[in-house]
């Protein structure tokens, strides 16, 4: 019986075949800076003017990999806020044998508009989040709208997810935000919006009422309301065989390479700023799968669930 992933991800991501043939996957928090200050940011304190991975750091890593690498740019800061436009980090990375996913806030997109078609094809997926209250406070709504239209124009629809975080303390702005998206993005491009429920603040009855009213009023443009719960798909498994440290790595803006941030034995797999990359020789038997990285690995088709049959577990170690 083939194991069916009860994935916790927005429907668009679940429907999009996220499985990859890339030999190595790097979840890369490349940027040491974010221009926004979202109250619901899970990074505390929000990264400001911290070290950032350079092109040379990433080129070193790619030079140590046989085969194609998937670089998933996400995490602590905003990818584009981590470098100056003239550095063209994204364009230069896309010249390698890579696939790339971007998780960005859309305040700046640097050289994206000028990327050559070949480079653009190597971007598998873009997740753009509209942090409306922050955009309002930073007087950045127009810049965000222009960037969103450029991103969608070049890479929209099936390969694109636009999200808006519903945080209860900002409830007074929810309707205004969705209406802004409708007028400035949906009516121009047809791009729909996923509402992401803030996991850090409990939704009360009034929050649910406002959410239901939004879903009714904007039924044509809201794809779904979604709450992250990374543990769901692992709850019936005593363990998994995980490629963390073997072919999956979490790379941080200060250069650290970890197989897995949650398992002490997998915490050090090198440091790009020290030009060290030290993978483990085998996969890892893990009884602690419940985190964001675990979810990413499963979505990518790289996690081995012991109940499934016909899935190669060769190389599995301890
Ligand atoms: S845009 Fe993302 S990284 Fe930046 S403050 Fe907001 S939630 Fe945090
Ligand atoms: S916690 Fe998750 S990512 Fe880390 S080793 Fe376990 S299954 Fe893999």
Layout of helices and strands, plus pairs?
Blueprint: H1 11-15, E1 24-28, H2 55-63, E2 69-73, H3 89-93, E3 98-104, H4 117-121, E4 123-130, H5 132-137, H6 141-155, E5 160-166, H7 174-189, E6 193-197, H8 205-217, E7 222-226, E8 240-242, E9 248-251, E10 257-258, E11 270-271, E12 276-277, E13 283-286, H9 292-299, E14 316-317
Parallel strand pairs: 1-2, 1-9, 2-3, 3-4, 4-5, 5-6, 6-7, 13-14
Antiparallel strand pairs: 8-13, 9-10, 11-12
Helix pairs in contact: 6-7
Describe it for me?
The protein is of the alpha/beta class and 318 residues long. It has a single domain, classed as TIM Barrel. Helix content is 26%, strand content 19%. It has nine helices and 14 strands. The chain has a nine-stranded mixed beta sheet. Helix 6 runs parallel beside helix 7 (174-189). The longest helix has 16 residues, at 174-189. Residues 1-7 and 308-318 have low confidence and may be disordered. One iron/sulfur cluster (SF4) is lined by residues 240, 242, 244, 260, 262-263, 266, 284, 286, 288-289, 291, 293-294, 297.
Q: What's the multimeric state?
A: single chain
- Named CATH topology: TIM Barrel
Q: Which shape, going by the Cα principal axes?
A: globular
Structural Rg: 20 Å
Which percent band covers the strand fraction? 15-25%
Q: Going across the major beta sheet, what is the strand order?
A: 7-6-5-4-3-2-1-9-10
State the end-to-end CA separation. 25 Å
The CATH architecture term is Alpha-Beta Barrel
Main sheet? Answer: 9 strands, mixed
Q: State the helical fraction.
A: 25-40%
The tally of structural domains comes to: 1
Mean pLDDT value: 89
**Care to count the β-strands?**
14
The CATH top-level class label: Alpha Beta
* SSE string, helices as H and strands as E: HEHEHEHEHHEHEHEEEEEEEHE
Q: Count up the helices.
A: 9
Ions, cofactors and other bound molecules: iron/sulfur cluster
Helix and strand content put the structural class at alpha/beta
């Amino acid at each position: 019986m083939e194991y069916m992933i009860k994935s916790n991800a927005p429907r668009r991501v679940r429907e999009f075949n996220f499985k990859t043939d890339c030999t190595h996957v790097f979840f890369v928090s490349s940027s040491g800076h974010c221009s926004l200050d979202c109250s619901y940011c899970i990074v505390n304190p929000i990264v400001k003017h911290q070290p950032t991975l350079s092109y040379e750091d990433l080129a070193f890593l790619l030079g140590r990999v046989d085969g194609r690498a998937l670089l998933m740019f996400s995490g602590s800061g905003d990818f584009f806020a981590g470098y100056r436009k003239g550095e063209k980090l994204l364009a230069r990375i896309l010249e390698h044998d890579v696939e790339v996913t971007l998780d960005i806030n859309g305040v700046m997109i640097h050289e994206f508009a000028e990327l050559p078609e070949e480079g653009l094809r190597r971007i598998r997926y873009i997740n753009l989040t509209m942090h409306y209250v922050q955009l309002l406070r930073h007087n950045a709504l127009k810049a965000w709208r222009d960037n969103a239209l450029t991103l969608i124009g070049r890479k929209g629809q099936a390969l694109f997810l636009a999200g808006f975080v519903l945080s209860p303390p900002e409830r007074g702005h929810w309707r205004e935000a969705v209406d802004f998206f409708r007028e400035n993005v949906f009516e121009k491009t047809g791009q729909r919006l996923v509402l992401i429920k803030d996991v850090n603040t409990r939704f009360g009855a009034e929050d649910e009422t406002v959410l239901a009213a939004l879903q009714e009023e904007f039924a044509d443009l809201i794809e779904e309301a979604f709450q992250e719960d990374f543990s769901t798909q692992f709850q019936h498994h005593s363990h998994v065989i995980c490629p963390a440290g073997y072919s999956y790595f979490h790379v941080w803006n200060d250069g650290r390479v970890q197989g897995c941030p949650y398992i002490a034995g997998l915490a050090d797999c090198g440091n790009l700023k020290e030009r060290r990359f030290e993978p483990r020789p085998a996969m890892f038997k893990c009884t602690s799968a419940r985190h964001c990285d675990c979810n990413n690995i499963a979505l990518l088709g790289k996690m081995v669930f012991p109940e499934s049959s016909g899935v190669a577990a060769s190389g599995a170690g301890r």
